[in-house]
């Protein structure tokens, strides 16, 4: 279970680093996916550890990332094709 937690934390850190260094955009699929994956892995880890405040925040983080992914996909689908 600790491995899930470490991988989740790494997903968050790497995605944020790549965002800040402008290698990823906040609207990219990769950015959203890394945040969703990180949240899922950390939720598994924190449920196992019975750290429910961490379960809550990581679950919310994942839901926000899913919302962002859906919103960005809908905007791309509605944008005019050239």
Structure keywords:
mainly alpha; membrane; CBU_0592-like; elongated; 3 helices; transmembrane helix; transmembrane; 82 residues; CBU-0592-like domain-containing protein
Question: What report would you give on this structure?
Answer:
This protein is mainly α and 82 residues long. It has one domain (2-76). Helix content is 80%, strand content 0%. It is built from 3 helices and no strands. Helix 1 (2-20) runs antiparallel to helix 2 and helix 2 (29-48) runs antiparallel to helix 3 (52-78). It is elongated. The protein starts with a helix and ends with a helix. The mean pLDDT is 94. Residues 2-71 form the CBU-0592-like domain. The chain crosses the membrane at residues 6-22, 29-47, 53-70. Keywords: Membrane, Transmembrane, Transmembrane helix. It comes from Belliella aquatica. It holds the Pfam family CBU_0592.
Short note summarizing the structure:
The protein has 82 residues and is mostly helical.
Secondary structure blueprint with pairings:
Elements: H1 2-20, H2 29-48, H3 52-78
């Amino acid at each position: 279970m600790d491995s899930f937690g470490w991988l989740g934390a790494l997903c968050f850190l790497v995605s944020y680093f790549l965002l800040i260094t402008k290698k990823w955009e906040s609207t990219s699929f990769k950015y959203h996916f890394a945040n969703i994956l990180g949240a899922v892995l950390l939720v598994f880890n924190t449920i196992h550890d019975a750290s429910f405040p961490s379960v809550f925040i990581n679950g919310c983080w994942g839901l926000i990332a899913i919302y962002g992914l859906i919103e960005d996909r809908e905007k791309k689908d509605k944008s005019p094709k050239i």
